[in-house]
């Protein structure tokens, strides 16, 4: 189901296609993702509710790309900090109500700060930098590499076998991402942050 989420980033990429090479790379990524769908593995096929939720998540991801680019242009890497503050305000009451005050135990603070830095602060800051330096279509196509990497991680660490079709799908996605990266037109120079 997670593969369906990539309809969002690829939709953003498709909305801004201009050159024939762009159509070729996005088409190759879409074909690869379709072959990674778990339809063949289940006799019942894809659960409609799960598919709808995954597509909804993909829509939210598309909004993140569009608004993330705007926020990155306006606020730079500070956009990640503002997002983390808002997320903490929303999530902290839920966490405290579930785990109680043990969530605020000072002994877990070093681990919590390390987890926050590695799982949110660093990745989202790097995403803001990437969103500011490349077109949305390139970012959307490059994110399609994630299910391919997930499949390879499953192979290496969980010993999940991949079929020849799945290997071909991963190859198509990787090729589309490489092609997109190589054919990005240089963007106009980005003004350095004033603050």
Question: Mind explaining what this structure looks like?
Answer:
- The chain is mainly α and 195 residues long.
- It has one domain (2-183).
- It is built from 8 helices and no strands.
- It has helices at 7-15, 20-36, 48-75, 78-99, 109-133, 136-142, 145-158, 164-183.
- The chain is globular, with a radius of gyration of 19 Å.
- The N and C termini lie far apart (42 Å).
- Mean pLDDT is 78; it is low at 188-195.
Task: Give me a quick take on this structure.
The protein has 195 residues and is an all-alpha fold.
In percent, how helical is the residue content?
Answer: over 70%
Number of strands: 0
Number of DSSP helical runs = 8
Provide the domain count: 1
Largest sheet: none
Q: Which sequence of SSEs, written as H and E, runs from N to C?
A: HHHHHHHH
> Which of globular, elongated, flat, extended, rod-shaped describes the shape?
globular
Radius of gyration: 19 Å
How big a fraction of the residues is strand?
A: under 5%
**Poorly predicted runs:** 188-195
* Overall residue-averaged pLDDT value: 78
Class from secondary-structure proportions: mainly alpha
Distance between the termini: 42 Å
Characteristics:
195 residues, disordered C terminus, mainly alpha, globular
């Amino acid at each position: 189901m997670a593969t369906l989420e990539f309809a969002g980033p690829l939709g953003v990429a498709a909305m801004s296609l201009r050159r024939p090479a762009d159509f070729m790379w996005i088409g190759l990524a879409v074909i690869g993702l379709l072959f990674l769908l778990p339809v063949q593995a289940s006799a019942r096929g894809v659960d409609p509710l799960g598919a709808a939720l995954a597509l909804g998540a993909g829509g939210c991801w598309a909004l993140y790309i569009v608004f993330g680019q705007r926020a990155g242009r306006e606020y730079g890497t500070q956009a990640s900090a503002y997002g983390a503050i808002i997320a903490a305000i929303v999530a902290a009451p839920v966490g405290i109500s579930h785990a109680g005050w043990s969530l605020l135990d000072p002994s877990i603070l070093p681990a919590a700060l390390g987890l926050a830095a590695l799982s949110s602060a660093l990745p989202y800051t790097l995403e803001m930098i990437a969103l500011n330096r490349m077109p949305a279509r390139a970012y959307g196509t490059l994110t399609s590499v994630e299910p391919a990497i997930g499949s390879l991680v499953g192979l290496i660490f969980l010993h999940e076998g991949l079929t020849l079709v799945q290997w071909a799908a991963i190859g198509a996605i990787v090729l589309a991402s490489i092609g997109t990266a190589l054919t990005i037109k240089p963007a106009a120079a980005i003004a350095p942050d004033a603050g």
